[in-house]
Amino acid sequence: MGIVEKALAFIDHITVRAGYKNEWITVREADTSPDYGKLPYERPIQEHIVNGVINLDKPPGPTSHEVVAWVKRLLGVSKAGHGGTLEPS
C-alpha cells in the first residue's frame, strides 16, 4: 500500500469514527517521496511533541498564558503558544 492509499485509509478511519462517509475521486495517481513527510501515525511521539498541535479545552479559571506555561513545563519544550482565544465562551 502506497502513501496515498495509507493517507486515504487514515482519513476514512477518522471520518467514519466521526459519523461521516467520504467518496474519493482520483484525479491523478502519483507516488510521494517519504523524504517529504510522514503520516501522523507513523511519526514517533517526540516528533509530535516538537512539531505538533494540542487541541485543548481550557477550563474556566487559569488564563491562556498560564495554560501555555503548564504545557511547556509538562512537555519540556521551550516554545509553545496559543492561537485565538482559550477563554470559555
Task: Note down, in words, how this protein is organized.
This protein is an all-alpha fold. It folds into 2 domains: 42 residues, no CATH class; 42 residues, no CATH class. It is 38% helix and 0% strand. The longest helix is centred in the N-terminal third of the chain and has 15 residues. The mean pLDDT is 79.
Task: Please write out the topology.
Layout: H1 3-17, H2 45-51, H3 64-75
Q: What's the story with the biggest beta sheet?
A: none
Residue share in helices? 25-40%
Distance between the termini: 44 Å
> How many strands in all?
0
Please state the CA-atom Rg, rounded to the nearest Å: 18 Å
Number of domains: 2
**What pattern of helices and strands is seen along the backbone?**
HHH
Q: Beta-strand level of the residues, as a percent range?
A: under 5%
Arithmetic mean of pLDDT? 79
Global structural class: mainly alpha
The best one-word shape is elongated
Count of discrete alpha- or pi-helical segments spanning 4 or more residues: 3
Low-confidence stretches: none
Give a concise summary.
By secondary structure, this protein is mainly α. Helix content is 38%, strand content 0%. It has helices at 3-17, 45-51, 64-75.
Q: Can you give keywords for this protein?
A:
mainly alpha, 2 domains, 89 residues, 3 helices, single chain
